[in-house]
Amino acid sequence: MTPSPRRQHRRNYNDPGHAHELTFSCYQGFKFLASDRTCDWLAKSIDKARRRLEFDLWAYVFMPEHAHLLVHPRRPQYDIAEIRWAIKGPVGKRAIRCLEAEAPEWLPRISRRRGSKSERLFWQSGGGYDRNVTDGKTLLEMIDYVHLNPVRRGLVEQAEQWKWSSAAWFLGTGQPPLIPDQIPPEWCQ
Question: Which residues pair with 129 in a beta bridge?
Answer without folding.
Answer: 23
